[in-house]
Amino acid sequence: MKKLHTVRRPTLATLWLALALTPWFTGCATPNGQTTVVDAITSAPPAAGAIEAPAAPANTTVVAVDNLPPPSESDESFVAKPIDPVEPGRPVDLFDDKARVDLWARVRTGFAMPDIDTDLVRRSEQWYAQRPDYVQRMTERGSRYLFHVAEELDKRGMPMELALLPFIESAFNPQAQSVARASGMWQFIPSTGKDYDLKQNIFRDERRDVLASTRAALDYLSRLYKMFGDWHLALAAYNWGEGNVQRAIARNEKAGLPTDYLSLRMPDETRMYVPKLQAVKNIVMRPEAFGLELPELQNHPYFLAVPIERDIDVALAAKLADVSLEEFRFLNPQMNKPVILAAGTEQILLPYDNANLFVKAIANHHGALATWTAWVAPKTLRPADAAKQVGMSEATLREVNRIPPRMLVKAGSTLLVHRSPNRDTDVSEQLADNAVLAFAPDAPPLKRLTLRAGKRGETVASVAQRYRVSASQVAQWNKTSANGRFKAGSTIVVYVSGKSTTRTAAAPSTRSAGKAAARPVARSAAAPKAGPVRMTRK
Predict the structure, then answer these.
(1) Helix (H, G, I), strand (E, B) or coil at 298
(2) What's the rounded Cα separation, in Å, for the pair 242 and 237?
(3) Which residue positions does the secretion signal occupy (predicted)?
(4) Would you state the pLDDT for residue 134?
């Protein structure tokens, strides 16, 4: 039998330490048919996801930070009453049978979907059974989040099979990114993420947020079940899109065929979707039958939520919590930058063992919490010029803001920059929620060329063709229409590169001996360096 490594979870003793602060605890909380990049194994079964519409926030435990003196070990009057991390009003005995039961056993008892038994299920079972290392990585990652998902499903009265869905979507990797830009363990594409009120900007991407994405995914699955009245069809719609499933049902109805999941004509990925989930369900039910042993998981939360009151560097937050950066990012994968903005991030997630350490350490920390802040470009700038204005090296500014080569930073863009005495305040909520970073091509310097139309005039199109610019640009520079015509002897302005100016000024082309082309009559050294150019009058 292939034994999977056991994931270290908080012990009951450390839970007492973490819950010693509970008097301050309060509750808080793709395109269709796209393949998800979930793991290093390139031969993994294809995954997918597509989602829609927000609901109430999920519940998890919050540790209050402000005015929280550490309890004295000698103070016998300090007695903390443990509370349920998801339902704060319900007392909990950390040594009762519920806390000590294997989480996998709880998941098994919540299975409620009808089973399917097909060759596709057998094929998926075999695939997983032949890759114990992959299953090990998948279940170890999932151990961080499985209790939270199970709690949310129980509260909503939804079948526990859905707790296994992230295994299919992303191998329970909240940092997974698909080629179609679907992201997170539930795999949202940008547009559906916005539909579900998942914030996406340069600072954070809530499609990867463990709590927010779980809330949104379960909202959508619940809506799909109400729509189709069948969990297998709801899952097909989750993968393929509800419209596609409705059309497939309509086709079968018209042909007098059954309309259940196995009877519909679907793309291969959707056809494999429910069989893959069934295979994982079968492995969870009887791991020994597949030569596997699942890691032991206890039936209590893996993490607490700790409010963030001030901007703080990601590296410092991990250090104060005494967790590795890798572990911190697995629990807080929504962070896009090396700083956490308090105005845009209500809380961070930390393991039970480390939440108490963080609360004490941040209260006793001296010095700056954040070395980064946000700066809005006052005008369109080259990265070198922006770096000079904020007192950074161009290389660092480019790296932290992911500025592509040969690009300008457009006016109004928000850049992450080093804090300084004149930039020492926390980022505002408006900027934290709405920051954008836009680029424009850094075109070569342009020169202004003044022409005179010939005796028979000149069309805008012919001037544009000659100087290899667009007719709309010529029209803009001369305040006319793209299909217009210049009168004989009128002045025409174009902007061209230095190379084009020299060539065309020396030898303006003519289309025929009887038609005079516009001739260059003057050249100015002053010209815009890039971007759209307006006509300047002589």
Answers:
(1) strand
(2) 4
(3) 1-29
(4) 95
Q: Residue 388 — very low, low, confident or very high, per pLDDT cuts 50/70/90? A: very high
In sequence order, which residues have a C-beta less than 8 Å from that of residue 514 and are 6 or more positions away?
A: none
Residues 135, 292 contacting (CB under 8 angstroms) = yes
- Residue labelled with tokens 């010939």: 454
| SS3 state at 126 | helix
More confident residue, 520 or 523: 520
Whether 185 and 17 have beta carbons less than 8 Å apart is answered as: no
Buried b (16+ CB within 10 A) or exposed e, 152-179: bbeeeebbbbbbbbbbbbbbbbbebbbe
Question: Assign residue 66 a region: left if phi > 0, alpha if psi is -120 to 50, beta otherwise?
Answer: beta
Q: Summarize pLDDT for 493-511 with one digit per residue, the tens.
A: 998 876 544 333 333 433 3
Q: Which residues contact 453 (CB under 8 A, 6 or more apart)?
A: 486, 487, 488, 489, 490, 491, 492, 518
Amino acid at 471: A
Active site residues: 169
Can you tell me the distance from the alpha carbon of 360 to that of 535, in angstroms, rounded to the nearest whole number? 63
Residue keyed to tokens 């990925």: 269
Q: Is the separation of the CB atoms in 304 and 278 below 8 Å?
A: no
Q: How far is CA 530 from CA 133, 142, 380, 407, 440, in A?
A: 53, 50, 10, 10, 9
pLDDT, tens only, 462-479: 999 998 888 888 998 999
Buried b (16+ CB within 10 A) or exposed e, 419-431: beeeeeebbeeeb
The stretches of 302-348 forming alpha helices (DSSP H) are 314-321, 325-331
List the alpha helices (DSSP H) in 162-267.
165-170, 190-195, 210-228, 231-240, 242-254
Rg over CA atoms, the chain: 31
Burial class (CB in 10 A: 0-12, 13-18, 19+), 336: middle
Of the candidates 179, 187, 177, 262, which has an alpha carbon nearest to the alpha carbon of residue 221?
A: 187
Give the confidence band of 41 by pLDDT, cuts at 50, 70, 90: very low
